[in-house]
Structures are given as C-alpha cells and as structure tokens.
Amino acid sequence: MKIYWIILAAVGAVFLGAVIWSAVASNVETPDYEVLSKSGDIEIRHYVPTIVAQVTVEGDRAEAINRGFGIIAAYIFGSNLTSDEVAMTAPVTQQSSENIAMTAPVIQQSEGAAWNVRFVMPAEYSMETLPKPANPEVKLIEVPAKRFAAIRFSGFAGQNSLDQHTAQLQGHIAEQGLVALRAPEYAFYNAPWTLPFMRRNEVMIELET
To answer: Is residue 31 over pLDDT 70?
Structure first.
C-alpha cells in the first residue's frame, strides 16, 4: 500500500509539472484582435495588420507543418543575416496555398499539395527592423487588417478533428450569410508537449469585409 501511494504521488508530481510547464511555455505573444460577435466556440474577429514569416512546403498536412515549423524556427533562432534571435510567438498557422472553392462542406487536401506555414512576428518589429532571413525560402510578408470567423477547440488536432471543426465553422458562416474568401487556416498555439486538455487549436476562415 505504501508503494501505491509513492507511485501515485510521483505520477501526480509529473502531471503537475507538465501542467505548469505547458502553461509557461504557452505564455507567448499572440496577434491582437477584436471579437465582433460570438456564438458558442465560434467568434467573428477583426485582426490588426501584422508581419508574418512564411515558408511554402509541399507534402501532406502533418508533414508540411513539421517541416515548415523547423525552417521558420531556424530563422527566429538566429538563421538570419545578422544572427539575431526573434521572440517566439503563437500561433503557428497553416493554410493551403491553392485556390480552393469554399462551397465544399469540408476541405480535404491531397498529398503533394503546397501549404503556407507562418509565424506572426512580434508587434515591436517593422519590415525595416526585422532581421533578413538567411534562407531564401523564408519570406517576410506584411498582412493587412482582416476579418475572420474562428472556432476554437482543445485536444490533439488530427485531420478528422480539423475537418469536423471546419464543417461546423462553414455551416455557421452560411447560416449568418457571411462570405468566405479563402481556404481554412489552421492555427496551433502550443508546444508539442502540451497536455491535450490545455491545447488551443483553431480553424479560421477569412471573411469578406
């Protein structure tokens, strides 16, 4: 019985440590937006202009975001012309680079497609002050103010979950008479070791203003 309580205490300590570490690791700068309306887990948001570091990667979705994350992470950790580090932000986003009709209830992406993977740069930077990427695959892009419909959910964001939440978001957009402009954008806010119930994932669809 004593061994049981020792094991239980050890598991509890590891779990508590994971919770604390996940919370600390996820406490990074995120883009500013205003919530215009809310319905359950769905929000209509107005985002201020931002600068993103973007790389386009071919392959299936999971492979593409892993490769894209690595390329842009190298840039912010010093793989740039001045070897400067740029603070990590959240989320990392992923969106098909192809023009996809928004009439389909769920967006499916086939293997071999191209994906744009992006980090939003900290708000303190301008295009002039950001370090220039050493890797020509990394592009710095100014993104104007935009309006999005977004649905937030926790857990592991596998393709089935992304598809289900995309369908729910598209249904809301249709019900509200809104006009979607582009394919869904997936947003992931947490480090890979974050516990499932503490994760923040989103599907976002840009709307006509």
So the answer is: yes
